[in-house]
């Protein structure tokens, strides 16, 4: 039986970053192992493979690119990868499963980067370390039924209440 991770269906092998082969190989092997047993089930059932989150945390690449945007990024627990190292890690995850690569990019590049660039110092200290360790999983909501991806037209609101938040909208 051939596993999804071993096929060349998407032919990403040609895009391996040779100058970062140790990182590429580490990410590829670890991520392939994380998805190996469940890969067809989550693909066929259109489910997210939650079992990859602990393995992703072990890779310590979440928020890898933030060093270029935030001075002293290590105090937030981010690995401080070069752009090439970060791209190599994302490419290796994509070689195994593109949807997991999208998850990684949303988690690190959209959410963590937004907090790093626009958040207060208190927000950075509160969220970035947990996001870097993947103890907190990030999401990004942009679409609504009537407005598509027009972010300026979002009507969804988040109101803080005792014990959490109330989200009101149709995301």
UniProtKB/TrEMBL annotation:
GO cellular component terms, A-Z: peroxisome
Annotated Acyl-CoA dehydrogenase/oxidase N-terminal domain residues: 36-134
InterPro entries: ACX4-like, Acyl-CoA_Oxase/DH_mid-dom_sf, AcylCoA_DH/ox_N, AcylCoA_DH/ox_N_sf, AcylCoA_DH/oxidase_NM_dom_sf
Gene Ontology biological process: fatty acid beta-oxidation
Membrane-spanning ranges: none
Any one GO molecular-function label of the UniProt entry: flavin adenine dinucleotide binding
Entry-linked Gene3D superfamilies: Acyl-CoA dehydrogenase/oxidase, N-terminal domain (1.10.540.10), Butyryl-CoA Dehydrogenase, subunit A, domain 2 (2.40.110.10)
Name of this protein: Acyl-CoA dehydrogenase/oxidase N-terminal domain-containing protein
């Amino acid at each position: 039986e051939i596993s999804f991770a071993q096929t060349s269906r998407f032919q990403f092998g040609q895009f391996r970053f040779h100058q970062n082969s140790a990182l590429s190989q580490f990410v590829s092997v670890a991520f392939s192992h994380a998805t190996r047993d469940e890969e067809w089930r989550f693909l066929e059932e259109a489910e997210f493979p939650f079992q990859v989150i602990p393995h992703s945390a072990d890779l310590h690449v979440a928020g890898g690119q933030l060093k270029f945007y935030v001075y002293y990024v290590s105090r937030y627990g981010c690995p401080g990868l070069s752009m090439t190292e970060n791209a190599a890690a994302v490419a290796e995850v994509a070689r195994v499963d593109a949807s997991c690569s999208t998850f990684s990019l949303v988690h690190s590049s959209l959410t963590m980067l937004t907090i790093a660039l626009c958040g207060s110092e208190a927000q950075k200290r509160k969220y970035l370390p947990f996001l870097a360790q993947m103890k907190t999983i990030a999401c990004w909501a942009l679409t609504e039924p009537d407005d598509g991806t027009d972010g300026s037209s979002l009507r969804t609101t988040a109101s803080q209440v005792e014990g959490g938040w109330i989200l009101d909208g149709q995301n």
